[in-house]
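This section describes the prediction task in plain terms. A model, or a person checking by hand, is given the sequence of a single protein chain and must write out its three-dimensional structure as a string of tokens. No templates, partner chains or ligands are provided. The sample shown here is typical of the held-out split.
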Amino acid sequence: VGAMRDHFKAMRTATLANLSEHLEQFERQALAAGAHVHWARDAAEATAIVIGIARQHGARLAVKSKSMTSEEINLNHALEQAGAQVTETDLGELIVQLAEQAPSHVTAPAIHLSTEDIARIFRDKLGMQVPAWIDDPALVDDQTRNRLARDLSLTARKHLRERFLQADVGISGANFLVAETGTVVLLENEGNILLTTALPKRHIVLAGVDKLIETEKDLGVLLRLLPVSATAQRQSCYVSLLADAHPDMHVVLLDHGRSKLMADTQLRDVLTCIRCGACMNVCPVYRNVGGHAYGAAYPGPIGALLMPHLEGMDRFGDLPFASSLCGACTQAC
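The expected answer:
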């Protein structure tokens, strides 16, 4: 894994050094395949573009797969203000949406909530019948709690099936964008991204420009490295490669401060991050205070580095001091 990480780092650094050229190549290939490509300089422009695309189709209900980039620009709130109902389809994201909370972790959004917490949320928001013991969980064993967890998952699946079938537009992020072929790459374990991108008549992809990679050969390295770093899996359950599979796909490429980072040869290093969340899992500060304490879309060590540059030192200049200087994140990254 160490050798693979070194190869990945060199590959990503080389791509970022010539990012403008590769972005133009991606746009050419995506347009040739029938997709639409939009450019957004900041959060306001990105939300306006997405809302405009949704309104062209008269979208009233949007289903959305997990996307940290959309959290970065507060897309859900903007869509709701524009009159669209938005449903998160990743189980963890659905839970925190129903709880009216922000995600606490980039790969496990509801990691801060217990089974009993989630049962109470589903009872209050979805009308699920839950056992009385959730108010006194010390009375039950792990087997009983696991049965409840399964029932919660089935309730969420039933709720989401209705949304998938009714949705006018599907919104996703992107794990990677392949310049060579104009391909959008999405990794998942639940199958919700497949339904989000395939069932609605219109698919909107929101991705930071730093998601770009050069070739499908490079993708082979990343598909081995991301799952093991994020969830200790040899491979994600589903890998979707979207090029010309959808009749109406729109790709919104977001800058939002990334160009400024790329212009600095030292700061550029932070954009090699693939949002696996490994740094959070080992960080003693994050593990004690949780993701919400950072007040940002990206918590933990990567958030402490990234957010001051994306949103300004005035707002997030204190985050880099949320460190014990132990170096655990550096070793995990």
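For orientation: The two ends are 11 Å apart (CA to CA).
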